[in-house]
Amino acid sequence: MDIEQFREYCLAKKGVTEDFPFDEVTLCLRVMGKIFAITGLDADRFSVNLKCDPDYALELREQYGEVQPGWHMNKKHWNTVDFEGSLDQGTLRKLIDHSYERVVATLKKTEKEALAGL
C-alpha cells in the first residue's frame, strides 16, 4: 500500500479529515478531530503510527517485524507500522481499521452521534 492508497483508504472512512498540525511533512489523519494515524512524508521508508490496544500491540510486535513500538508516541498505545515491508494490504487495512475504531471508542457521546449522522 503506498501513501496515496493509504490516504484514500483513510479518507473514505466516516468523519475523517487530514491536516499538517506540526509541520509541512507530518500528515495526521483524524476522526472527529482525534488523531488515529500519523506519517512523515519525508521519510526514507513509508511507515505509519497507528493507535492500538496495548495487549494487541504486543502481539503484533511479536508476530510481525514490520510492527514496532510507536516512534515519538506513547509506546503502550501506538505502533509504527512499516508499509513497505511484507505485510499484505488486508493486514494493513485491518491495522488502520483497528486504530480508527480505537479512537472512535473514545469519542464523547455527542461526537459519536454526530459521526453516526454523517
Summarize the structure.
This protein has 118 residues and is of the alpha+beta class. 37% of the residues lie in helices and 25% in strands. The chain has a single domain, classed as Aspartate Aminotransferase, domain 1 (Alpha-Beta Complex).
CATH architecture: Alpha-Beta Complex
Distance between the termini: 27 Å
Tell me the number of strands: 6
Structural class of the secondary elements?
alpha+beta
Main beta sheet strand tally, sense and closure: 6 strands, antiparallel
Helix/strand order, N-terminal first:
HEEEEHEEHH
Could you estimate the helical fraction of the residues in percent?
25-40%
User: What is the C-level CATH assignment?
Assistant: Alpha Beta
Overall number of domains: 1
Mean pLDDT: 96
At the fold tier of CATH, the topology name is Aspartate Aminotransferase, domain 1
Radius of gyration over C-alpha positions, nearest whole angstrom: 14 Å
Strand order of the largest sheet: 1-2-3-4-6-5
